Amino acid sequence: MYKLSIKTILFNGIALALPLAVVAYIVFRFFVIFEKMVLPAAKLLHIATVFGELTLTILAILLMLFLAFFLGLLMQISYVSNSRKLLEDLILKIIPSLNNLKLIAAEKLETGDAAGAWKPVLLEYSEGIIPSYLIEETETLATFSKVKIPGTEPGEIVILRKDSMVYTEISISQLRIASRQFGKGLISLIEK
């Protein structure tokens, strides 16, 4: 086990606290919005104070759950599902690092939803063997994004002919572990 400095612990705490604070703020704002939406109906039905102050919050949570369920039903319609995929692709083009989070989430949750996501691979071609993401593939060409070490952020884009390269699929966990160690561990993945 290695020793952590106070500075590292403090920065790790800040790195955890900031996203949690943003998520808490967004959830709080949603509750406020949904409580305002529920208030007129609750007053009309004379149930605004049945459970005291919690009544509006409970109704807002129920409305949010109903809305999530309704949106889930809409996703069963192919037009809506395709629109979501197009919007997601557009967002991933604007902010490519979100794809990393999508891969990690899909792997952690074991959803199998990573089919449309970039695949982490070890790409072998004239420059050597490079950790990359497979972005797109046809019968003759493939598009890759090289990984920026020590992170797993996408970097330089390379389009190669399939007959001039070979790639080996790896998991995002294997890529993250090797990247954090500045490439240590990649050789064991190559020799498999």
State the gist of this model.
With 192 residues, the protein is α+β, with helices and mostly antiparallel strands.
Radius of gyration: 23 Å
Backbone shape = elongated
- When the domains are counted, the total is 2
Number of strands: 5
Low-pLDDT sequence parts: 111-115
**Beta-strand residue fraction:** 15-25%
Order of helices and strands: HHHHEEEEEHH
The first-to-last residue Cα distance is 28 Å
Strand order of the largest sheet: 4-3-2-1-5
| Count of individual helical segments | 6
The main sheet comes to: 5 strands, antiparallel
Assign the structural class, choosing from mainly alpha, mainly beta, alpha/beta, alpha+beta, or little secondary structure: alpha+beta
Q: How helix-rich are the residues, as a percent range?
A: 40-55%
**Average pLDDT:** 76
Explain how this protein is built.
- By secondary structure, the protein is of the alpha+beta class.
- 54% of the residues lie in helices and 20% in strands.
- The chain is built from six helices and five strands, in the order H-H-H-H-E-E-E-E-E-H-H.
- Strands 4-3-2-1-5 form a five-stranded antiparallel sheet, with helices on one face.
- Helix 1 packs across helix 2.
- The protein is elongated.
What labels describe this entry?
alpha+beta; single chain; 6 helices
Topology overview:
Elements: H1 6-44, H2 54-74, H3 78-94, H4 97-109, E1 119-125, E2 128-137, E3 141-148, E4 153-161, E5 166-169, H5 172-180, H6 186-190
Antiparallel strand pairs: 1-2, 1-5, 2-3, 3-4
